[in-house]
Amino acid sequence: MTRYLLERPHRLVSLTFFSERYESAKSSISEDLTILKRTFKARGTGMLETVPGAAGGARFIPYVTQGEATQFVDEVIASLSEADRFLPGGYLYMSDLLGRPNVLRQIGRLIATQYLSDEVDAVMTVATKGIPIAQSISEYLNVPFVIARHDSQITEGSTVSVNYVSGSSSRIEKMALSKRSLAPGARVLIVDDFMKGGGTLGGMQSLVKEFDATVAGVAVFAEGAFEGERVVPNYTSLLRIHATNDHVDVTPGNFVEQIYTPDRVSLLKK
Amino acid sequence: MTRYLLERPHRLVSLTFFSERYESAKSSISEDLTILKRTFKARGTGMLETVPGAAGGARFIPYVTQGEATQFVDEVIASLSEADRFLPGGYLYMSDLLGRPNVLRQIGRLIATQYLSDEVDAVMTVATKGIPIAQSISEYLNVPFVIARHDSQITEGSTVSVNYVSGSSSRIEKMALSKRSLAPGARVLIVDDFMKGGGTLGGMQSLVKEFDATVAGVAVFAEGAFEGERVVPNYTSLLRIHATNDHVDVTPGNFVEQIYTPDRVSLLKK
Fold it and tell me: Do the beta carbons of residue B193 and residue B222 sit within 8 Å?
């Protein structure tokens, strides 16, 4: 039952279903769910929402507690601060982190915590490095993810494309998304691995509008230092990366302060 | 305990750890593990290997039974055979499937079944569409994945690149992988979404060799029809796609027949 619920976050599974699957009375399933609920809460795994009545059941909503979130961000900072990650031009090598299943799992759980009670129908990113992040979030929100591309391919069918100004380099770029990707009215969470001026994220916002869909939020793994106004005013970031000529400073982004507001923390305690 | 093991496949978790975490005697943890083992087996979730003795513990090894594998392949075929997926030029639209968390989870579990008892240190793919598949497999094998790219980026640091002949179009292409990605001697599982002549997969094989690493296997989601000899002789595919001028036939690939050999099936029954 634990496995079944964990693999289907945000979806209501009926008592009847469990009772048939495990050939047990609904009353004992109900009792087991109560135990699970307590365990999930005690371990900070997530919330188990139980819906009473004949049409009732249980829904697993993953979240990360503030303590765990802070600890994770600190761990990532420690590992990104290793000297051999510094690349010429003030860049930081972080592709290895974004290829480790345990790191991606935590990123997915964190961002899903942000959309605990908001409706999200799809996660969107642009190729290439945002994909693993989008996929992890999509798993924990249990919604599909879509990938916009700079080169539109024949296997995508007809596409919708937008031009946008890359904020940091002021070049005009183009991205395209398959016409079949998003339904009108869908609530779309935009994510990427890194944001500087926010131009790419702005491009994704334009794409969402072209599909008559709505932006549910913007989340990035890391933000870089940027002078001036960002194309995307509202976003969350797990990390802040500040590069100088000879080294890179990594500090926590705005995620923890934005997400663990008193309201939300009390919701998690329910 | 279920959640802890499910999130850390292929890793041995010690009895001592569980006993401290849950403040229970090792004997009761042991009993619980026996129950879990039975449940995992009965539900086809996977194997729970228990290692006896003071240094012992339990290791969760996910797998998919032959029945479930066949059913999944059939479901994917049914959904890919919808008429509106046909694209001009004999292509098939399948990006939506490879963006659904439940489909990706099953693909990951299936391919992980193939490497149940083989050592794999990393999963490799090439951008863009193989990434979600590589990530899912990496989750179930609990090893990192690395992404080769056609355009090497400044954020990858120094890279190793190879040229290869794209089997289907006979063009010469290039792919690069960050030098920091793979350790010498690593056993690498190569995956992609689609294979025609196998040129791209051959390019990845050359890359693996450049890193003094070994190819542990080659797995693709779908293979297309191809006349002549493939660059990659040994591979598994979940699907076979045969396009004609006005429609596309999707049939099962060689996965089920290659993987569910009598030896392996008896291993799963243990």
Answer: yes
What pLDDT sits at residue A267? Answer: 76
Q: What is the pLDDT of residues B21-68, one digit of tens each?
A: 999 999 999 999 999 999 999 998 999 999 888 778 999 999 999 999
Tell me how far apart the alpha carbons of residues B193 and B143 are, in angstroms, rounded to a whole number.
Answer: 19
Residues contacting residue A189 through CB under 8 Å, at least 6 positions apart: A111, A115, A120, A122, A123, A124, A137, A141, A215, A216, A217, A218, A219
Residues of chain A positioned with their CB less than 8 A from the CB of B94:
155
- Amino acid identity, position A18: F
The residue of chain A with its CA nearest to that of B89 is A154
Point out the domain boundary residue: B62, B77, B96: B62
Chain B neighbors of A154, CB-CB under 8 A: 87, 89, 91
Q: Are residues A90 and A110 in the same domain?
A: yes
Q: Is A155 on the interface with B (CB under 8 A)?
A: yes
Question: Looking at beta carbons, which residues of chain A come within 8 Å of B101?
Answer: 135, 138-139, 142-144
φ, ψ for residue B139, nearest 5 deg: -65, -45
Question: Would you state the structure tokens that stand for residue A164, as one six-digit string?
Answer: 């946008």
Closest CA of chain A from B255, distance in Å: 23
Residues A260 and A136 in one domain: yes
Residues in chain A within 8 Å Cβ distance of B96:
144, 180-181
Is there a contact between A154 and B45 if contact means CB atoms under 8 Å apart?
A: no
Give me the CATH number covering residue B150: 3.40.50.2020
| Same domain as B137, residue B119 | yes
Give the domain CATH number at A44: 1.10.10.10
Contact at CB, A157 and B7, closer than 8 angstroms = no
Q: What is the pLDDT of residue B152?
A: 72
The token pair that represents B6 in the structure block: 């499910």
Domain boundary among B62, B87, B105: B62
Q: Which pair of structure tokens corresponds to residue B133?
A: 């598949």
Minimal C-alpha gap between B204 and chain A (Å)? 17
Does one domain contain both B23 and B120? no
ipTM for the whole predicted complex goes beyond 0.85: yes
Task: Indicate whether A200 and A87 sit together in one domain.
Answer: yes
Flag if B93 and A180 touch (Cβ within 8 Å). Answer: yes
pLDDT in tens, B67-86: 999 999 999 999 999 888 98
Residue B167 is predicted with a pLDDT of: 65
Question: What is the count of structural domains for chain B?
Answer: 2
Residue reference for tokens 């009792």: A31
Task: Provide the token pair at B43.
Answer: 């539900």
Are the Cβ atoms of A132 and B135 closer than 8 angstroms? yes
Within 10 angstroms of residue B11's Cβ, the number of other Cβ atoms is 14
Q: Which of B45, B95, B169 is the mutation pick for testing A, counting most A CBs within 10 A?
A: B95
Per the CB < 8 A criterion, the answer to whether A95 and B155 are in contact is yes
For residue B53, give its domain range: 2-62
